[in-house]
Every structure is written in C-alpha cells, then in structure tokens.
Amino acid sequence: MMRLLIGVLLLALAFAAGHQVHAKEPTLTISFGVVDKVYSAAELLARKDAADVTIEHDIAYKKRMTYRAVPLLDLLGDIDNAPFDTLEARATDGFVSQIPISLARKAREGGAIPWVAIDTAKNPWPNLPGRSYSPGPFFLVWQHAEKSGVGPEQWPYALAQLSGVASPLQRWPQMAVAASLPADAAERRGAESYIKHCLSCHRLNGAGEGDMGPDLDKPMDATEYMTPVGLRRLIRDPASVRTWPTQVMQGFDTSVLPDSELEDLIAYLTYIARK
Fold first, then answer.
1. For the segment 160-206, what is each residue's pLDDT rounded down to a tens digit?
2. Which of 47, 146, 154, 249 is found 20 to 30 A from 213 (Cα to Cα)?
3. At what angle do helices 228-236 and 259-274 cross, to 10 degrees?
4. Number of structural domains, the chain?
5. Structure confidence by residue, pLDDT tens digits, 47-95
6. What CATH number should be reported for the domain holding residue 36?
7. Is the domain of 68 the same as that of 162?
8. Contact at 8 Å (CB) between 193 and 264?
C-alpha cells in the first residue's frame, strides 16, 4: 500500500512539474483590438511572414545582427483606424516604452521598419555585452532606424506585451505643460524628449508605467537636488556620477540627444518642479 501511495505521489509531482514548465513558456500578448492575441515563440516562428532580418546597427549588441522575425505592422493589423495613437511595449523587467504609432507607420513611407524578433532554441541569442542575459525571448528591432529617428528606448527587449493606448499626455495630464505656452516652447519640446528617452524607466510625479528607475519628480524633483552641471553629466554618462553593480542606465550621447534637446529636457524638468 505504501509503495502504491509513493508511486501515485511521484506521478502527481511529475505531472505538476510538467504543467509548471508548460505554464512558464514565454508568450507575447498583442492588445491592439477588441480581442487580445497571445502568441508563443513557436507560433510566431511558424507564421508565413516570418523572415530572416539583418539589423546593421543593433542597439542592444552594438553590432550587425540577424534575427528571425515577423513584421510588427502585420501583428498589429489595422493601424490606420485604431482608436489610439501610442504603442505601449511592456517588458518583463519593468521597462515600458511609449512608441508613437506614427513612428511605425513611417515604414510604409520609406522609413524605419519595425520587426518583432524571436529567440530560437536552435540558434539562441548570446548574452548582451557585460550582462548575464540575452534580449529574448522577444525583441522589437528596427531596420534603418536612422531614417525615422528611432531612439534607443524604442527598442524594447524581453517583450511581454504590446498594447494600443492613448498618448502619455492624455493618460497622465500631470505631465503636460500649460496650453498657454508657445508651440515652440523649450518646455513643450522637453516633454516630448522625456516621453521618448526617459519615461520608459522613470515615472514623473506618478505618471508612467516604467519601474526600472526612480520617479524623477517624487518625492523631490531631480532639478531640486542636482546642479544643472551634475544633471547634464548624469544624462550623458551616468557611471561618471553614480555607479553600482546592477546599474543598467546608459548615457545619451549627442547623436541620440543633441545638446539643444538636452537643454529642452532640463527646462521641462525644471518646469515640472515648479508646477
């Protein structure tokens, strides 16, 4: 009797372990319509539009890379009649990028072409430089990123979900500048820079979804405890100001964030602090 009970217990444990492994299979959820679509890596790789895609200047590996990928526009479907203007790309590590749908739409006008790359068991991706992990299982990559001015924060990896949402300024009005400010005000331009370069990791007065870095306005705005010189240096070269073993933030050089845009960004943060 005891042997029978032990056998039944072992069988149950084996079933549970197998079920757990299956449950942990990575999936990508596309929330861009009435019904969410959930894809496994195998399902994406089996699509007829899957192709080998070469990225000349890969933002993660800092070199030329080739991936098996599917076109982002095909996964999303009808982007022209979508009731939202932003694609929220949520990663498993707390990174949440807010990508204008207009940026993806430029692919049809000769601009950068977005693809969802899929890591494969047959040819697994190597670890990222200096890291113990790869950008898998899913990675949003761009062919000819320079044609549309795609920023580094618009290449989210470790993807878990892509969702159609309203723009950040609509969802979080505390981020918006006053309507009375001129259309070309530095603060207004700085808000757009913040959304593009910072919001993926840093909330602002509670606004945003990213959790990789601290809120830059709560409980105290960054401009209130850092000098302008120190803040500029932190943005350009974070490790020269603060460094720790798990640090992930990389600097924004002038090719990504020109000096004029950096000044706009600081003007915006200063404006938010006084708001």
1. 999 999 999 999 999 999 999 999 999 999 999 999 999 999 999 99
2. 146
3. 130
4. 2
5. 999 999 999 999 999 999 999 999 999 999 988 888 899 999 999 999 9
6. 3.90.420.10
7. yes
8. yes
> What CA–CA distance (Å, rounded) separates 185 from 177?
10
Same domain, 251 and 159: no
| 3-state helix, strand and coil shares in percent for the chain, rounded to the nearest 5 | 35, 20, 45
* pLDDT per residue as tens digits for the range 99-153: 999 999 999 999 999 999 999 988 899 999 988 999 999 999 999 999 999 999 9
Determine contact, residues 165/99, Cβ cutoff 8 Å: no
Domain assignment present for residue 15? The answer is no
Which tokens is 98 given?
Answer: 């807010």
Element (H, E) at 53: strand 51-55
Query: Do 165 and 171 meet the contact criterion of CB atoms below 8 Å apart?
Result: yes
List the structure tokens of 179: 């309507």
CB burial of 64-91 (b: ≥16 within 10 Å; e: otherwise) equals ebebbbbbbbebbeebeeeeeebbbbbb
- Which residues, at least 6 apart from 190, have a Cβ–Cβ distance to it below 8 Å? 261, 264, 265, 266, 267, 268, 269, 271
Which residue is it, tokens 């430029």?
A: 106
